[in-house]
Amino acid sequence: xxxxxxxxxxxxxxxxxxxRDVSSVSGQWRDVYGKWxxxxxxxxxxxxxxxxxxxxxxxxxxQRRRVAAHELGHALGFCHKSYDEGxxxxxxxxxxxxxxxxxxxxxxxxxxYHALWG
Length: 118
Known about the structure:
This protein starts with 15 loop residues before the first strand and ends with a helix. It has helices spanning about 50, 60-75, 95-100, 105-115, and strands at about 15-20, 35, 40-50. Strands 1-3-2 form a three-stranded mixed beta sheet. By secondary structure, it is α+β, with helices and mostly antiparallel strands. It has a single domain, classed as 3-Layer(aba) Sandwich (Collagenase (Catalytic Domain)).
């Protein structure tokens, strides 16, 4: 992949991204393992410890990396992909990402990256 050029922080522009933890299995967090949350200033990639902590449903380093990569894709500007578009870390159903053992960008993801970022 080519390097994404991020605008430097300044008085009128911010280019910050932080990982944050949440821990909930109810409401908007039911069966949601991570979420990208765009904010003014610093965007947040939220990781749901209720599912991702050791011993939990998706509580392995491999699963946490998959969720983080998926949410980072959203932060880069990518939307969910449908299954008929091909294998992608951006499939909406995380179970399918895990079942297919997708551990990095797929050909479809790389194609989308270059279409968006050059």
